[in-house]
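Hey, weird one. I pasted the Adenosylcobinamide kinase sequence into the form twice and got a warning about non-standard characters only the second time. First submission, copied straight from the form history:
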Amino acid sequence: MLALVLGGAASGKSEYAEQLAVSLSSQRYYIATMQVDDAESERRICRHRQMRAGKGFHTVERALDLAGLDLYCPGAAALLECASTLLGNELYLTGGAGVNAPDAIMAGIERLLAEGLDVVVVSNDVFSAGAPCTPEMRTYITALGRLNCLIAAAADCVVEVCCGLPIYHKRKAEDFGV
């Protein structure tokens, strides 16, 4: 199963995605995409570690090249946290996929699915923020929109989390016995 969990900042999307991954399998991987580059990123990483403590996740750090990740563990659940951070890495870090980032990330998700894992992908809704738009930000927002559309088209379940409440856009997770 592929599930896409979307939401704005502090919407509850990560907590919902973790609960979904926990319900899918007793063997769980947390694919962490954020790199520590300042105090704020360190705080966010610590908060997410605390949130998933005791839930049985094996953390795998992967800032680039999701398709190169080999988790072959049929029946396991993989939580990708998060696609929007991975996209920024792929677009702007040395060695990233550049303009091909959405396709490269989708290829990585497809590989995990082909390996027999259930995949839960967290992504951000940045489309209504109304922030000033630099050319780099326009490139990122356009690429994130494309990536979210690619994932949603392939997903069995698409859920948006707003104020901690799940809003289902494409089948409920319960429809799959979760």
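That's the output from the first submission. The warning seems to come from a hidden character in my clipboard, not from the data itself. The chain has a mean pLDDT of 90.
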